[in-house]
Amino acid sequence: MKTDAIKNTSPARMRFNSSHVGLMLLKMRTFIALFIILAFFTSTVDGFLETGSLIIMVKHVAINAFLALGMTFVIITAGIDLSVGAILGFCGMVAGYLIDHGIVLPLFGIAIFPSVWVIVPSVMIIGGLIGAANGLIIVRYNVAPFICTLGSMYVIRGAAMLLSNGETFPGLQGDPLLGNTGFEQIGSGHLLGLPYAIWMMFVMAGIIAYIAKKLPFGRHVYAIGDNERAAELSGVKVNHVKIWVYTISGLCAAISGIVVTSQLVASNPATGTSFEMNAIAAVVLGGTSLAGGRGTIMGTLVGAFVIGILADGLVMLGVSEFWQMVIKGIVIIIAVIIDQMQSRLQYKAAISAQQ
């Protein structure tokens, strides 16, 4: 009997344990990657972990994190949003236009200059509406998310160019006489020693994580990504959830656009170009499956830190911008490969558990 027990527990159990360990390592890949990157740049760049450098890097991380947090819900539903970079740029241009030109009323021959407290929520609403339009087209006309958001990316980017004829709106401090000052404080202001952007990033991550874990909407998002047909049969309003998912993505892109424009104190129609790739990389690197149904907000946040710190570390090392593009592309490819490996190991683990 002892021999039989040994036979029963050696090969299969060893295979199970090895696959289980491999799966755990893959699930922790984002934290491992972040640790390796921090260790590498700490040993090669002087003062890399100094307080000032860290705050600047986390400010840069926040820009990508806003986009990635919204993108997470989209990818969990097995969708994609390629328009977030363009929405970022367009919303920044709208904010710049309102500060610089105000709302022109030709009939009365006047221009109304709204305060920052009006501009910020208005721009956020515009970003959300653009996202909602993406979602509506996808669900109403059954257009593939990749095609829909690719097309809208060009439309929105063109609209940003038309808003200023391709020019920049500089010096967005506003005018005290017009009552539209204070916009730059969003990007340069501090609370308890940390920039507002960092606080906003953590608050937004907390809100979206709460939605994902505690609210029915979050459970519906995961259900759609796991099996859309089954979710629909169980009573989930699939189309409504998808529209809201893209609305949230557009809203997050608008917030990112506001922060970037405020930090630069200027808006340029080309701002945000290729930012969608960084957001997707952060989401996938954070463990969200491109096939849908799997992902965490914490993983996305850590993924944004990996992408952001990698980019800043390469700049500090003096690496060419062209090589930076190559390295980012390799990171995205590796992240997708690892995601596929994790999916296969999870499938094998599920089969082994059933046996």
Please state roughly what percent of the residues sit in beta strands, choosing from under 5%, 5-15%, 15-25%, 25-35%, 35-45% or over 45%.
under 5%
Strand order of the largest sheet: 1-2
* pLDDT averaged over residues: 87
> Low-confidence spans: pLDDT under 50, at least 5 residues?
5-10
| Count of DSSP H/I helices | 15
SSE arrangement, N to C? HHHHHEEHHHEEHHHHHHH
Alpha-carbon Rg, integer: 23 Å
CATH class group: Mainly Alpha
CATH architecture heading: Orthogonal Bundle
* SS-based class: mainly alpha
What is the 3D shape? globular
Total strands: the figure is 4
Largest sheet: 2 strands, antiparallel
Protein name: ABC transporter permease
Main location: membrane
Subcellular location: Cell inner membrane
Family: Belongs to the binding-protein-dependent transport system permease family. AraH/RbsC subfamily.
Q: How would you characterize the overall build of this protein?
A:
There is one protein chain. With 355 residues, this protein is mostly helical. It has a single domain (51-354), classed as Orthogonal Bundle (ABC transporter involved in vitamin B12 uptake, BtuC). It has helices spanning 2-9, 11-27, 29-44, 51-76, 84-100, 116-140, 145-164, 185-188, 196-214, 216-226, 228-233, 238-264, 275-285, 297-316, 321-354, and strands at 103-105, 110-112, 190-191, 194-195. The strands form two sheets. It has a two-stranded antiparallel sheet with strand order 1-2. It has a two-stranded antiparallel sheet with strand order 3-4. The radius of gyration is 23 Å and the shape is globular. It is found in: Cell inner membrane. It comes from Celerinatantimonas yamalensis.
